[in-house]
Amino acid sequence: MVIVVKSNRLRISLINLLLISLIIGLLVNDHNGISTSPIKTTCNDYSIILMIGDGMGFNHVKLARYIEVGKDQRLTMENLQLNFSVMTHNVQQLVTDSAAAATAMATGYKTINGKIAILPNGISLPTILELAQEMDKATGLVTTTSILHATPASFMTHVDSRNDYNEITRQIVEEVEVDILLGGGKKYFSSVHLETMENKGYSIVENKSALLAHTSRKLLGLFADSHMDYEITRNYELTPSLADMTQKAIKILDQNPNGFFLMVEGGRIDHGSHDNEKDLAALEAIEFELAVRKAVSYVKKHSNTILIITADHETGGLTIVSDNLNETIPQSSFTEEQNRTIRINRVNQIEVAWSTGGHTNQTVPFFALGEPFENLTSNLLIDNTDIFTIMHDYYLEKEIVIIGRTLVVVSPIKASTIIISISIVTSCIIWIRTKRKTKQQACIFSQQQRHNESL
Ligand SMILES: [Zn+2]
Asked: Which helix (DSSP H) or strand (DSSP E) does residue 28 occupy?
């Protein structure tokens, strides 16, 4: 449903709508609760892979599709069994940043821009990664940005400002025990920090061959001083791709008999889109798709795992204007260098337009794969906090409740020089999926395994 409101009562309407949003948001979030339940009593081997394309709107996916498989085909992520649209507004504004959006997905609570897993009033929010740790699952965070950047940070730390890298680093080194951390951000770790990490059992790797050779269960990979190189300039010998890092992380995390939580971020789709550089954005989105293929391949063989692919927000207001694409598409039999050349040629055969150098409040994609999603209705509109709820309820073997939302658009609103529209939550539960078989057997196996390991 789309409601268009045009009147000089706009201010009242907006306030009302924001209040409705807050009330409903609280009601919906109450489903999650800031959990203090005895998690340890729940024992299963369920795993979650959450993949976030930073800044990846529907048209970024479309652009990647045009280049990688052709206009009439579908990417692997588009072919998954379930797809929704996701609203991304934060608790206060229409346009979110990565910190508020990642906090919503990691904790089930909306906050304001810049906050890392805390509410505007400073209350820390338990994250899905911390829940996984309480359940003795292995955990991993993988990104092409600095590992301290807003998205990964929101799953493992609690910080008042996303820019407080000293505090984020301190928490990672002193308080957080994420098993696998792969990305950039080397310059933020002092030699003392790195020594502390080694003393805690981490192996530290800095290049692709060291990563691929590694087998230990605790791994810190720092492949750049700040963000990792864009895919368009990546050195294929020295620097792992997002797909390489994803595959390695899954392989290590899979060794835990109690399952795992892994968040993988294609972090630089956003950066290329801020600069309105279609080749940068497109190749980052394609690299994200290649990482998705690694995860899909794993999940198809592991019925105790779900895969969720989404974005934190759209960046750039990207649209595809026209194209004159030829028939040559990348092939697995070609070298990486050949495929990169083909991709760049194809990007240049597509004309795009951008509406902004910032983020937008467009809805973003959600694709999912896994046993609980079988036979679910696609094409619903959900909220980014619902992603936490789905993951939380999956781990705790609860019913997975999908809340179909209604987009209420109030437009046009002139704010500064930008015309914006507002997405507000009104919601009704339109589908309930009862969950699966018990995993008691796996639980017994896990305890037996631990017993054996301790002998
Ligand atoms: Zn951004």
From this structure: helix 10-32
Burial classification of residue 422, based on how many CB atoms lie within 10 Å of its CB (0-12 exposed, 13-18 middle, 19 or more buried): buried
pLDDT of residue 14: 41
**Comparing C-alpha atoms, which of 24, 108, 87, 17 is closest to residue 380?**
87
pLDDT attached to residue 418: 36
403 pLDDT above the threshold of 80? no
C-alpha 325 to ligand 1 mean position (Å): 29
Gap from CA of 115 to ligand 1 centroid (Å): 14
Domain ranges of the chain: 46-400
**What digits encode the pLDDT tens for the residues 74-84?**
999 999 989 99
CA of 168 to the centre of ligand 1 (A): 19
Which are the contacts of 117, defined by CB distance < 8 A and separation ≥ 6?
Answer: 103, 106, 107, 124, 125, 127, 153, 154, 155, 157, 158, 159
Residue 375: burial class (beta carbons within 10 Å; 0-12, 13-18, 19+):
exposed
**For residue 231, how far is its CA from the centre of ligand 1 (angstroms)?**
17
- The DSSP result for 357-378, as a single string, is SSEE---EEEEEESGGGTT---
pLDDT tens per residue across span 376-385: 888 899 999 9
Alpha carbon distance 207, 239 (integer Å): 6
Q: How far is the CA of 140 from the centre of ligand 1 (A)?
A: 23
Q: What distance in angstroms lies between residue 351's CA and the mean position of ligand 1's atoms?
A: 22
* Cα Rg, the chain, nearest whole Å: 21
Amino acid (1-letter code) at residue 210: A
User: So what's the pLDDT on residue 277?
Assistant: 98
pTM greater than the 0.70 cutoff: yes
What distance in angstroms lies between residue 277's CA and the mean position of ligand 1's atoms? Answer: 13
CATH topology of domain 46-400: Alkaline Phosphatase, subunit A (3.40.720)
The values of phi and psi at residue 18, to 5°, are -65, -40
Q: For residue 233, what are its two tokens?
A: 């300039």
Complete DSSP assignment for 305-358: EEEEEEES-EES--EEEEE---S----TTS-HHHHHHHHHHHHTTEEEE-S-SS
CA of 331 to the centre of ligand 1 (A): 31
Cα distance between the two ends of the chain = 61
Name the DSSP letter for residue 399. Answer: P
Report the separation in Å between the CA atom of 368 and the middle of ligand 1, taken as the mean of its atom positions: 24
Beta strand ranges found along 185-258 (DSSP E): 203-205, 219-222
